[in-house]
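Problem statement: downstream parser choked on a complex file, so we are re-checking the raw output for the adenosine-5'-triphosphate run. The parser issue turned out to be on our end (a line-ending mismatch), but while we're here, posting the original submission so the record is complete.
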Amino acid sequence: MEAGELSTVVAVDGPSGSGKSSVSREVARRLGLAYLDTGAMYRAATWWCLDQGVPLGDGPAVAAAVRDLPLVMGMDPAAPTVTVGGRDVGAAIRSTEISSQVSAVATNLDARAELGRRQRELIEAERSGGWSGGRGVVAEGRDITTVVAPDADVRVLLTADEAARLARRAREVHGSDDAAAIAATRDQVVRRDADDSTVVEFQVAADGVVTVDSSELDLEQTVVAVLGVVGRAGDPQARAPR
Ligand SMILES: Nc1ncnc2c1ncn2[C@@H]1O[C@H](COP(=O)(O)OP(=O)(O)OP(=O)(O)O)[C@@H](O)[C@H]1O
Ligand SMILES: Nc1ccn([C@H]2C[C@H](O)[C@@H](COP(=O)(O)O)O2)c(=O)n1
């Protein structure tokens, strides 16, 4: 048996607020797989550019900064971490400042190429070792099923209608889904998805990608639905060697 034969790579994409992070993290935890939040890598790159005084409107400067990004991703789903130059930026990258500016990095094609390369390396490392000891990884983002890991064992597009996604994010950030909270959330969800959609498709499932619509599901039901897709793709212990 060769390293990686029994590993499982689960790729999850979807729009903002569809539940990718919470669902992928819990699926990884229940399956004993590593968890890779690729959106956090774009957020960390944005934090780094701002920290280094790199203007986000200067594409070549952003690309150069991202190539030098001293990023370490901790992939334990029970306690994922994001460290830049030895600093824990896990909380800082969730700020409204980063959320409102991250699309400038996400739409920079050179930055995408660099972060995509690192994501592929992290996923490959989990096939043979890494945090999971070779069990595999759940990686989530916008282009994992299509660009970063189109050969993943399981590929899921997690969707939810716009109203559900806005309400979830409003409750998370403002503690309410009243009209004012929804209005205050629109930029983080609708505008950001519109900008990000100019460089990557995450609203429509590519061939072979299974869509899970969570609009009418709660978090637990969505986790169970994604676990069902993984199960249908085959028990990794029973799967034929690659
Ligand atoms: N099926 C669900 N039902 C209700 N709430 C959910 C569901 N899935 C996720 N949530 C909640 O919605 C919020 C957004 O979820 P999450 O951050 O996982 O989405 P996301 O797709 O990763 O968003 P983004 O791409 O913007 O980071 C969280 O507060 C989460 O707990
Ligand atoms: N594979 C990915 C992951 C994320 N992005 C972009 C889209 C978002 O604007 C930003 C942050 O992602 P989030 O933490 O909100 O999931 O990164 C991308 O383009 N490709």
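For whoever reads this later: Residues 8-229 form a domain with the Rossmann fold fold (CATH 3.40.50.300).
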